[in-house]
Amino acid sequence: MRDSTNEVLRAIATNGPVSRAQLARDLGLSGPTLTQATKYLFDRGLISEVKQSPSTGGRPATLLGLVANAGQVLGIKLADNHAVGVCVNLQSEILWSFEEPFSSRGEDAIKELIALLKKQSRKIKGQLLGIGIGIPGVVSPIDSGTADSAMLGWNNVNVGKRISDALNTPVLLENDVNTLAIAESLYGHGRDVSNFLTITLGRGIGMGLVINGELYAGSYGAGEFGHVNALAAGVKCECGKFGCLETVASSPAILDAAIAAGYLPKSASMAQLWALARKDKKIADELFTEPAERLGIALANVINVFGPELIFISGEGVEGWDLWEKHFKKALASHVVATMNKFDIEVDPWDDAKWALGATAIVLQASLSRNHRSNASSTEVKNRLRIAAKIDSHAS
Ligand SMILES: [Zn+2]
């Protein structure tokens, strides 16, 4: 696909049905170039005309939209004891979702994952473009699919290649916080924002950085927000360093503090902790003030460097956000440079399926993005999109 054709496909895929005039304006394309690009996409069954009546009445406008079922993508988010997934079409509409038990620390974890994905892929009618997998850990690089994850108990595990070989399908792996950030930038509130941060609170603390509309990946990974230093003389972290933000502000750190203080029994859950803190303001202050302040200061440091417009806060820990908010906002405001104190904060309720949707977004992005990190798997996804389109245009 030539560049302008890909641009047109990307614009239609991410913005929904759009008029030819709007496309030409947005992309700065001449009439003939646009006609050539749309003809290429029509011929391959990737786009179709959609009639839409204007709200003001009058003649319906003819818009260009994506042929949703020209391809399908599986996305899955892994946790240590279960996997949550979705199957979407090209318009990112969820066709079905699933949740399966999965033990990442089991001897045959990858075999188990392959069986699970095979079962789901058998349900797909038409072309499977690829599988996106969100991992709570470090993936490098995205298409070799090697994963390190303390949470899953994985050390240098070659997940991507094994699954790709077994299912004969492109597999793209990404850090799960990054999959959320990509989903926000393609389909969520981040669509109209060039620079934003996604933070996740919970068992770990993560960050996805979208800079100039693209996920910032660093050279050796990025967004290890849980491991910025929060206390000079802190306790040892899972990563081996001392005083990391996670040792103060992760869910297990706060729960451990509550248990050590004798407020809760050893087997207590976060839900019990939140319930207790909501009932007793003194305990709430004792347990949540420092984590909230440390999180606010750490985030202020990042904001001062990147100057984002928007901050998303998500993860299973946001169920207790009411206990963080006041102290967090105060610490944040007192450490952000005045000229940069213009960002909005949105707290997204916890939603496992959204992370899985994010995992499909890395595959869709590989097929639609202008300048994604180019590699063998994403090229294969693109090829499949073309094959899918051909099949679709013959069938219709
Ligand atoms: Zn650490």
Radius of gyration using CA atoms only: 23 Å
Q: What is the number of domains?
A: 3
* CATH topology-level fold name of the largest domain: Nucleotidyltransferase, domain 5
Task: List unreliable stretches of 5+ residues.
Answer: 370-374, 387-396
Which key terms come to mind for this protein?
396 residues, alpha/beta, Arc Repressor Mutant, subunit A, Nucleotidyltransferase, domain 5, 3 domains, five-stranded mixed beta sheet, 13 helices, 15 strands, 21% strand, globular, binds zinc ion
Structure description:
This protein has 396 residues and is an alpha/beta fold. It folds into 3 domains: 3-66, Orthogonal Bundle (Arc Repressor Mutant, subunit A); 70-180 and 354-395, ATPase, nucleotide binding domain (Nucleotidyltransferase, domain 5); 194-308 and 316-349, 2-Layer Sandwich (Nucleotidyltransferase, domain 5), CATH 3.30.420. The protein has helices at 3-15, 20-27, 31-43, 109-121, 159-167, 176-187, 246-249, 251-260, 270-279, 281-306, 325-335, 352-368, 376-395, and strands spanning 47-52, 61-66, 72-78, 82-89, 94-101, 128-135, 138-139, 146-149, 154-158, 171-175, 196-201, 205-211, 214-215, 310-314, 344-347. The strands form 4 sheets. A 5-stranded mixed sheet has the order 5-4-3-6-10, sandwiched between helices. The chain has a 5-stranded mixed sheet with strand order 13-12-11-14-15, with helices on one face. The chain binds zinc ion. Residues 227, 237, 239, 241, 244, 246 line the site of zinc ion (ZN).
